[in-house]
Automatic annotation (TrEMBL), chain A:
Domain 4Fe-4S ferredoxin-type: start-end pairs: 258-289
Protein name: Cytochrome c oxidase accessory protein CcoG
Gene from which this protein is expressed: ccoG
Cellular-component GO terms for this entry: plasma membrane
SUPFAM superfamilies per the UniProt record, alphabetical: 4Fe-4S ferredoxins
From TrEMBL, chain B:
Gene name, Swiss-Prot/TrEMBL: ccoP
Family, per entry: Belongs to the CcoP / FixP family.
Function of the protein: C-type cytochrome. Part of the cbb3-type cytochrome c oxidase complex.
GO terms for biological process, alphabetical: oxidative phosphorylation; proton transmembrane transport
GO cellular component entries: plasma membrane
Location in or out of the cell: Cell inner membrane
Name assigned to this protein: Cbb3-type cytochrome c oxidase subunit
Source organism per UniProt: Methylophilus medardicus
Superkingdom as given in the UniProt entry: Bacteria
């Protein structure tokens, strides 16, 4: 492996050394220092927004049922006033495409916004770190605690943290399962130990995933597991907002007393306090430039601004900026002007089109279905009265939670007479909620009324109350004698 | 149960499967210690188009996951079919799973059917829910030939009228559905005589149901009809014991008019209704019988 000599373009003259090493190693634990500032506040806003939604929505009621319920057994998804069936899968595709495009757009404009502020991995890590911080203390205290011998203090703090984490994880699991099993039944059942096997499994599974990912895996998920993190760089360009360190202003870095002026002794503005490294949840040094581990959370910006303030220097040594902005020393306005670039405009256009399309399509989604199946065994037949008869099976489906009556109108041929076949126990009236019904129809036409061949006809099913209409095409066949 | 046609392929597949797992394990062990030349900036001297290869070891938990997948894979291959002809410890197969699911479903709906099985066909036919079940079975299985409205078509009997080839009593219908029927009429032209005789007989047959016919020919054919009477009866009323159709009711299963009758006399007919007792449970056939019987007995 190592014997292959590569003719490197500009071979470095740094002394090489042969080492034997393992391709695997345990990751170092990261003790992120807590931070406060603009971006941190925004993150907490997002934490509250997303988690209020996640934990709150299952408790909402809508017309006597849970407002958002994914009933897998009945194959029906209830989302407030809407009911989705398996055949509405296209809307799920829509939703996923819109979500993906939003992600592309945000990424093109402002880098890993999603990662830093709304990704569940970040949000739950933030919550778990807050718990950890409250119980074990901040960075230094946590390091000391981990290094110390097991004593009463350590046992108490560690077990307290575990209890808090596990409780939170389990509650997340319960909420998750509550989207599939009505949560108002689930929680009492859980308290009485009456849960089904699968429910128990999924609560534990989801709870453990939350606990493991937010408590222990943390940045490892972003670095090694997350597929989005792997390909998001493809959406970056030189005008994408990223967390940048202003090297021209900061270097050469060096420690100094508060009394000296900012750039005395030929030093740059960076005082090399390394707080930006300490607060980083992925453990990188942003001063080395943009790295793939960076999730754009802005913790280092908050930390550095704070330090600059204390030193009495201008903020923005580390800030959100763009590659072009950095190289050309652009102002904010000049950077914002670059928002109007093709990449962003195209993403926006597609996103807007799809979103509007989806909303419109949802608005006009008929809530009952009609399928017309011609009998294929019998194309046409002559009745004893000398009429031509075609047979159709109408499949009706009421997709709502109310009882409904329908009227049927058939157009396309003059003098068509409709008979309900003998085998029908019911016609188009009083369809129960979610009922599917087969109605067999015979259409008759006097012989010789129209030419031989196939004629297009139209079935129109109208809801008596809402006057909504669903149309379905079919054909009437006139045989040659 | 497997579909291998020769002894070679199962061995081939097993070798590739287990060899693949062994290769992964070997790679894991081989890569756990490796000699590299390391520069001080943590690169190893490999460089392509200015992109340098760095030394970034995989995290240990990743290796752990890798090992877990290997164990999972071996456990799976032990428990489930995956190695050639080996059926797995559980003896699982798609067919068995399907049968288990069908059995489970049948168990679920058994009480529903049992409720109706206790009643006679005539009683079941009066219950709308029961008729709906029968109708669904009919639409999915019988409608292909008899039509969705059960009125049949050429060659397929109409089930909604009161004309029955084998009889319309509930038990007879049940026997028909269970065992199927095979209606055979041999070609009779030779027995009747000349082409003229056949034409005359055809006109006599038409006269039985009062259809349009040549009365002179009909009179001439009356005598020759004796050949047909063996099955269709002296008056052409048919015989339900052997499924010989009634020729006097103007219902024509295989076509109307002189030409159609002559064709039938020449060619005969072998008409088959399949047997369904293998496909349905007796409870389902009970409901289906009630639905069919109910079509002509309001």
């Amino acid at each position: 492996m190592s014997d292959i000599k590569v003719n490197a373009v500009n071979k470095t003259t740094i002394p090489e050394q042969e080492v034997v090493l393992s391709l695997y190693k345990s990751a170092d634990k990261i003790y992120a220092r807590s931070v406060s500032g603009v971006f941190d506040r925004w993150r907490w806003v997002m934490v509250w927004a997303t988690q209020l939604f996640f934990y709150g929505v299952p408790w909402l009621e809508w017309g006597g049922r849970q407002a958002m319920l994914f009933d897998l057994e009945a194959k029906r998804f209830y989302i407030f006033g809407l009911v989705f069936h398996p055949q509405d899968l296209i809307y799920l595709s829509f939703l996923l495409i819109v979500s993906a495009l939003s992600l592309f757009l945000f990424t093109a404009v402002a880098g890993r916004l999603w990662c830093g502020f709304t990704c569940p991995q970040t949000v739950y890590t933030e919550i778990f770190m807050w718990i950890e911080n409250k119980i074990e203390g901040d960075r230094i205290a946590r390091m000391r605690l981990d290094d110390s011998k097991w004593n009463l203090n350590k046992v108490t703090r560690k077990s307290l943290k575990q209890v808090a984490w596990i409780t939170f994880g389990l509650w997340t699991g319960v909420t998750f399962v509550g989207y599939f099993t009505p949560i108002r039944e689930l929680v009492p059942n859980m308290i009485e130990w009456q849960l089904g096997g699968w429910e128990t499994f999924w609560i534990c599974f989801y709870g453990f995933a939350t606990y493991g990912n937010a408590g222990y895996m943390r940045e490892q998920v972003c670095k090694y597991m997350c597929p989005y993190a792997r390909f998001q760089s493809a959406m970056f360009d030189d005008d994408t907002m990223i967390v940048t360190y202003d090297e021209a202003r900061g270097e050469p870095r060096g420690a100094r007393s508060k009394k000296v002026a900012e750039n005395a002794n030929g030093l740059g503005s960076c005082i090399d306090c390394s707080i930006c490294v300490q607060v980083c949840p992925t453990g990188i040094d942003i001063r080395n430039g943009l790295q793939y581990e960076c999730i754009g959370c802005g913790a280092c910006i908050d930390a550095c601004d704070d330090v600059m303030d204390k030193m009495g220097y201008a903020k923005g040594l580390i800030k959100y900026s763009t590659q072009n902005g950095m190289t050309n020393r652009w102002s904010r306005q000049q950077m914002l002007r670059r928002l109007m670039r093709p990449r962003v405009l195209i993403y926006t256009a597609i996103l807007v089109t799809l979103t509007v399309g989806m909303v419109v399509s949802l608005y006009f989604k008929p809530d009952f279905r009609l399928d017309v199946l011609r009998d294929r065994g019998v194309l046409a037949r002559f009745t004893d009265e000398g009429n031509i008869e075609n047979v159709y099976t109408l499949k009706l489906e009421n997709d709502t939670e109310i009882v409904r009556d329908f009227d049927l109108k058939i157009s396309g041929l003059p003098a068509l007479v409709m008979h309900l076949a003998d085998g029908n126990t019911q016609d188009f009236k009083s369809l129960q909620p979610f009922e599917k019904r087969n109605v067999v129809l015979e259409l008759q036409l006097p012989d010789g009324a129209v030419r031989t061949g196939s004629h297009k006809i139209l079935f129109e099913m109208t809801d008596q109350q809402s006057k909504e209409t669903v149309k379905e095409k079919s054909v009437f066949i006139v045989p040659s004698n | 149960m497997n579909d291998f046609v020769s002894g070679f392929w199962p061995i081939w597949i097993s070798t590739i499967t287990l060899g693949g797992i062994a290769f992964c394990v070997g790679l894991l062990i081989f890569a756990s210690r490796v000699k590299v030349t390391l520069d001080s900036d943590n690169t190893n001297g490999h460089e392509w188009d200015g992109i340098k290869e760095m030394n970034n070891p995989l995290p240990m938990w990743w290796v752990g996951l890798f090992i877990i997948t290997v164990i999972f894979g071996l456990a799976y291959l032990y428990l489930f079919p995956g190695l050639g002809t080996y059926d797995g410890k559980f003896g699982w197969s798609e067919v068995k799973q399907y049968e288990a699911e069908v059995a489970k479903n049948n168990e679920k709906i058994a009480p529903l059917y049992a409720k109706y099985a206790a009643l006679s066909v005539e009683e079941v036919a009066k219950i709308p829910e029961a008729r709906d079940i029968g109708k669904r079975i009919f639409l999915n299985n019988c409608a292909a030939c008899h039509g969705s409205d059960a009125k049949g078509s050429r060659g397929f009997p109409n089930l909604t009228d009161s004309d029955w080839l084998y009889g319309g009593a509930p038990d007879t219908i049940k026997v028909t559905i269970n065992n199927g029927r095979n209606g055979i009429m041999p070609p009779m032209a030779a027995a009747i005589g000349s082409e003229e005789d056949v034409k005359n007989v055809a006109n006599y047959v038409l006269s039985l149901s009062g259809s349009i016919h040549d009365s002179g020919r009909a009179n001439a054919g009356k005598e020759k009809f004796a050949v047909c009477a063996a099955c269709h009866g002296a008056e052409g009323k048919g015989n339900q014991l052997i499924g010989a159709p009634n020729l006097s009711d103007n219902i024509w299963l295989h076509g109307q008019g002189e030409a159609a009758i002559i064709k039938r006399v020449h060619e005969g007919k072998n008409n088959v209704m399949p047997a369904w007792k293998e496909k349905f449970s007796q409870e389902q056939i009970h409901l289906l019988t009630a639905y069919v019987w109910g079509l002509s007995n309001k």
